[in-house]
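Now read these lines:
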Amino acid sequence: MAEQSHALVTQTFRITGMTCAGCSSSLQRALLTNPAVTSASVSITSGLARVTGPALNPQVIMELVRRQGFSAEPVQETAARSQSEYQQESVERVWRHRALVGMGLWIPLEAFHWTTSALHWHPAWMPYAMLSGALIILLIAGPGFFRSALQAARRGTTNMDTLISLGAVTAFSYSTVVLFRQLNQPTYFAEAAGLLGIVSVGHWLEARASAHAGAAVRQLLQMQPETSELLRLDGSTITVPSVQITAGQRLLIRPGSRIAVDGVILEGQSDVDESIVTGESLPVSRTVGQVVPAGAMNTTGRLVIRTTVSGRETTIRRMAELVEMAQTSRAPIQKLADRISAIFVPSVLAIAACTALGWWLAGNASQGLISAVTVLIISCPCALGLATPMAVMVGTGAAGLHGILIRDAETLERIGRSGHVVFDKTGTLTQGHPELQKIDVEPGHSEAEVLQLAAGVESPSEHPLAGAIVRAAELRGLSIPPVEQFAATPGVGVTGVVNGHRVSVERHHQTSAMVTIDGRAAALLTLADAVRPDAALAIQRLKALPVHVSLLTGDRRSTALQIAEQLGIEAGNVTADATPETKMHRIRSLGDNVVMVGDGLNDAGALAASGLGVAMASGTQVAIEAARVVIPGDRVCAVPELFQIARQTLTTIRQNLFFAFAYNAAAIPVAALGLIGEHGPLWAAVAMGLSDLTVVGNALRLKRRLKHTLAASRRDQQL
């Protein structure tokens, strides 16, 4: 999986051995110390690292990762199931094993301990039974925590596992000393064992939630069938794996089956559901010569297509790759959490030491030790590390499933902060080609007669207005008569003899064109670029968010104002007669975080100047590479949906960061003062797990909220 841009190469590696957000942050910083690396992003939620540089050597990168205490494996391509999903499943299995061992031993021991205490039965062997059970848990469930903490120590850093390991080992060691020296102090074997068990359960649930939150890539890839029916020269078919299909081969697509590879229809006609690419829920009619994308559902007719790409380079795979890249990227707001996490654990260690010292000076060393352990456990910054990536994974995944492809987390965050969108007109808010709007005929002529003759004389012409006249005649069921003595004058019009009449269609200053028959004016034709069906609704929704809407076009001001009036855009927000250079300067003058929406081709300069270019396209490979965001080419309403996704995701990130900060701000003083009681370490483990689940649950709530929001949007468009 590599992409080339200005001599820079991006390589993706699957990282194993990371256990917390601190691991991913420290590894990312280490990667950036390499002179050959210009940028790096490491995601704890997906287990992927993306490294960019002018001349990357994978072996050098893998060795650098190994020196940090992790292992790396290059990812060559998006497999049938996403690489991040494999990593998430692996992480889930590890935490499930630790949780089952920890809780499976701790719960019976704790239950027996509480039962005997309630019955006032204190056999002499009870402490030794608790020691044995805790030791087994430390030996089986603990090594993962201890190994990570030691690796961090060798790198001269700390992480979440540093706090967990110190807490568990300190509680166990203290209790062992109390037991064998027969001191009159409580022991904390159950707390040491329960800490590892409860934290493991919390991480297991987090891993499961991450897998569900990141399921968008898998759902996209599942839209490409694993096998295809390849047509042989003799007309027979053979079933082959879709990834083995090459460009130029013929495939048979039966009714009710999905199209495995992008192609052009050679035979047949059918209604095709292209919603996975375009977001349009209603099937569209497709016939010979038209393009159909991979992942689309053939609903009615039998089709034969000629593939235009290989089975490994389909639209659906490129979409999945982009979604996965966005999910593993880092939003700028996450830098705050990373900076805090980098200094948080050392600060907690200092607070724990001060807590122990303070209680010792106060004459209660035992309480000081337990309070210090409670501080170590309750202040683990795992929730802080999960706050941003979980929300980004959900937001970009939901967008991808609706045909909206967002390049990275930074783009998602910036759009979430934006309050201004600028639209190009032609091909964006309009269809991009003229349509016949009105025929004003002179007495003695009928609309059908004039249109038929005009279409006849225009039929050889390649001018857009000629095509509009011919299409209008065909839509009315009129036959197109042949033309003789055809002549075209650039900038003026065409003339010829049709059905024995001298006919001319010439440009006219009052309207689009004038038709003359045998030298006399017969009709005036009004042609205009038709507004897209959902453009007015899209503008209305954007204003309701609220988002400021402007129109930027190279067309004449009169035409631009006419379109703006139809769409509900104020005249003061219209810039017309704009050259490509003018468009660029206009976008730059509007400041940062202005979203520019264009067709991705003739608006390239303005899209680049915006930094938040949104290209309208039909999911083709060229369009996918064109901008920071790609939306379905025939759905302007995808723009307000993009704003809704970005804003709700940014809101969730802020909520998650607040939860994480507020939790630690409130919990650390309570733990240091010993207000949780003698079972503080155990309750601290429960509280820490709940804080993580709060962040994860809020991200999953975002997933449900976006699902309802986007579903409601689609229903409104169909009314």
Notes: The chain has a mean pLDDT of 82. Residues 396-430+533-646 form a domain with the Rossmann fold fold (CATH 3.40.50.1000).
